[in-house]
């Protein structure tokens, strides 16, 4: 059996965990949520709820992971002492694998658009047209390429694979976002975007829809519920203070989301200034795939000769964001197969990559029936319920003394700290109720 890995530095863990949380949803979902829900008022509510709701669940995953030094299946099995915990872990294993299967398709679109900017530079118009035209062949080819990139990183293990690439990719992501913000801000129309993003409408702060949207964004943006943070937590050194590390991850994730808004919203208003429609029929800002693959490419086209270079940098950014999330998703089933079935890491990675690719291909071949269904089943239903399960295990099933024992490993004064005075009862009583309400409201809506 392969030796268990460990992050070699605090920075390596923070960047890897933040990279897991920072995905495509942060970059195309958060900005339009802000602009459509009261501007800076939404940002304020989001930041508050990120620490009131998402941070406690994040800490549950990190503490369980480091204490058990196990994958999600084994960890919940150890805490519960029965097969019910293992079943919950397998549920998480299946959920994260399905998320990765549709995520690979979307990331494949990012990769094909990135390659299209290169073929444009080389004057290969025929290839450019094929690369940006939706087809099953294109989707399967580029999802396979993206999954291979992910697998190549994960085969390196924790310190030589995940950590090594996270400390390179995450700074690159920050630099690219910053450069694009500076460039877009010089264009006509950007100031209107800054106003829409930064000027608060506090009359919406207590709007139920805004609260539900902010709670959902806070919870899902941190990659919670499916075991990614639990597995990453299992690779943390016993010398580290978990509450501090968790807060650092939350702050970096929030920071990237806010930065993404500083790029996307001004860019959308620049597009509007150039005659490109950025609103839906109901008057809301366009978001999701239509934003990334219709509005912004039209903006790049309107920029003239410099547009293709801006497009290249932008889609490189999107690919980096996708990769930092996908490597954490693949690590969840890999950790389970390596540790529970004593398979070497390299064959385990490629076996599971092939299984995910088979699921991606099935979705691509039955796109209209399976794509939205898979997203709904995993992110709308399964993920919040798994978050609820983790709160129950951390707050009700796991012995309080065992939790404290783990926290004391990285901080001998943990018992006297504010975290220990609040978190145990908060994750036991408050988080399950809030997550259950959020889950109910999402279904009703």
TrEMBL record:
Name of the protein in question: Sodium-dependent transporter
Source organism, top-level taxon: Bacteria
Annotated organism of origin: Paraglaciecola algarum
Membrane topology value: Multi-pass membrane protein
Lineage of the species this protein comes from: Bacteria, Pseudomonadati, Pseudomonadota, Gammaproteobacteria, Alteromonadales
Keyword Membrane set for record: yes
Stored PROSITE patterns: NA_NEUROTRAN_SYMP_3
Keywords attached to this entry: Membrane, Transmembrane, Transmembrane helix, Transport
The keyword Transmembrane helix belongs to this UniProt entry's keyword annotation: yes
InterPro entries documented for this protein: Na/ntran_symport, SNS_sf, YocR/YhdH-like
Localization per record: Membrane
Ranges that cross the membrane: 12-31, 43-67, 88-111, 140-158, 170-190, 210-233, 245-272, 306-327, 348-375, 381-398, 418-441
